[in-house]
Amino acid sequence: MTGQPVYYINGIGILSPQKTFDNDVFLAELSSYHENVLTCVTPEFKNYINPIQLRRLSRMLRIGLTAATICLRDAKVQTPQGIITGTGYGFLDETAKFLRELLEQHEKQLTPTYFMQSTYNALSGLIALSVKCMGYNNAYVSRGLAFENVLDDAMLKLIETPDANYLVGAFDEAAEVQFLASTRASHFKTEQINNLDLFNTTTKGSIQGEGAAFFMLSGKASDTTWCALHDMQFVYNPVDIAEVKTSIASFLKKNSISIQDIDLWIDGASGDIEHDRMMNDLAASTFKDIFHTRFKHLCGESCTASSFALWLGASILRHQQVPAAIKVHTEKHPAQLNTILIVNQYMNKNFSFFLLKQV
């Protein structure tokens, strides 16, 4: 292959705290939460999962398998060449149930289901069995860069076999055990707020989110293509804002575009006055003249929230529409949206950039 490879998003399936499971509707109605925990809005699971299989699955496995099924149907692909998933913490509820039973029953006569459904690769294995995929299957557990590692893996695979279809996805759940621990560490706010007012707060911490998002990634476009993913890059624990700005400049130069070529940027600020400092600096400097949107008030903060941002960017390009709920200002956006840059941060430590273009 010559030149910079391009990757195409040929299908999407996502379940989130908003009604996102219907790909024909784009944030037509918003879900409002008055607690600091956002949970998935789910469809009728039996429309996507065999009822006999359904009753054996945990809640998060149902959500993940449904998202993957929606993506496969959207891409018109029965069996992908590979399945790659990422998660920050995995299935914490099932892990907690397994450990609780381990202690209460003194390690005797344990229910195997809790253990089987708590492993990090439970979802990728379940999907593979459901669609009879005997190909590449991998799961990443790398906190705030889990979804980025998934994409990196798939992109490397597609350089070798651009005609292949890889089902890539990410999931994290709003588990109580994580919420309590994270609140003590000031990762989530202690005062109750409405999620739609997240960016009007000036306190430490964000709000907890969850979701499962799947994308059909290929090196070839199809009649179901949403948009093109031209590149993705991540930066771990930058020393200061100067390093982030240098990384963004290098990323754009590598892809032969300038700041002025970006029609819209999606800001990964989380509503945490401490962790948003670098993102706020970027908004006031590097991207001050670029149409500005945010998203974590809709999905909450999680290790894999960047997967929601990727769905959001792809949806904006597909529908040529910017919902009022994600606009930071009310200024008029460009008449034609061709290029979107996503800049996400997790805990002010993991930064990632996604460059999307209309096909």
Automatic annotation (TrEMBL):
Kindly indicate whether the keyword Transferase belongs to this entry: yes
Q: Sorted alphabetically, which keywords does the UniProt record give?
A: Transferase
Respond yes or no to whether keyword Transferase is given for this record. yes
Looking at the record, the residues that make up the Beta-ketoacyl synthase-like N-terminal domain are: 47-184
* PANTHER family assigned to the protein according to its UniProt record, in alphabetical order: 3-OXOACYL-[ACYL-CARRIER-PROTEIN] SYNTHASE, MITOCHONDRIAL, POLYKETIDE SYNTHASE-RELATED
The protein's name is Beta-ketoacyl synthase chain length factor
Species of the source: Ohtaekwangia kribbensis
Lineage of source species: Bacteria, Pseudomonadati, Bacteroidota, Cytophagia, Cytophagales
